[in-house]
Design a protein that fits this description.
A two-stranded antiparallel ribbon has the order 1-2. Helix 1 packs antiparallel against helix 4 and helix 3 runs parallel beside helix 4. Strand 1 and strand 2 form a beta hairpin. The chain has one domain: Four Helix Bundle (Hemerythrin (Met), subunit A) (Up-down Bundle). It contains six helices and two strands, in the order ααααββαα. 60% of the residues lie in helices and 8% in strands.
């Protein structure tokens, strides 16, 4: 399996499932007469990011991860989404962005250095495979799973198959 197939396809699978989760969350709000802001601002604990930010961060870790692994320019996306429609658009734009990459851009990427911000005034450099295993995937899946958990906790009828995108 190529490094491209091992990374980009994983990002695409979960981003596609997040799009479906957003649609189900919006439908849940409509059916139960819940203001969308209730879910959009939901948190597991007061010091954690809200649902909206979880989606934004999942998109960021996918787009920036692919850019760093392919040694492309790292995109910057403002975090301005305040509705399910805007979040679905952000996920769609991230998916479209990931689809612009070609497998050859990732050739040897597992062994190339990847430098990324690791604090307010710090950077870290890891080999591509270590970057994927220790930074990009864990953060990407963490934020996607928290988003799923927030919706489930708030009564949206979703399960693991929805998270995996095989429902």
């Amino acid at each position: 399996m190529s490094f491209y197939d091992a990374t980009v396809s994983a990002y695409l699978q979960i981003l596609t499932s997040l799009s479906g989760l957003l649609a189900k969350a919006e439908a849940h709000c409509e059916a139960k007469k819940i203001q969308p802001e209730v879910l959009l601002n939901a948190r597991l604990y007061p010091d954690m990011y809200p649902f909206t930010r979880q989606i934004q961060l999942a998109c960021d870790f996918a787009a920036k991860g692919a850019a760093r692994l392919s040694h492309s320019e790292v995109p910057s996306t403002p975090d301005t989404e305040t509705s399910f429609a805007e979040l679905r658009q952000r996920v769609a734009k991230t998916i479209d962005y990931l689809k612009t990459f070609k497998p050859e851009q990732f050739e040897g990427g597992d062994a190339k250095d990847v430098t990324f911000p690791s604090g307010p005034n710090a950077t870290t450099t890891l080999k591509g495979q270590d970057f994927v295993n220790r930074v990009s995937f864990p953060n990407f899946y963490f934020h996607a799973a928290i988003a799923h958990g927030l919706l489930r906790h708030n009564g949206v009828e979703i399960g693991k198959r929805d998270f995996l995108g095989i429902a």
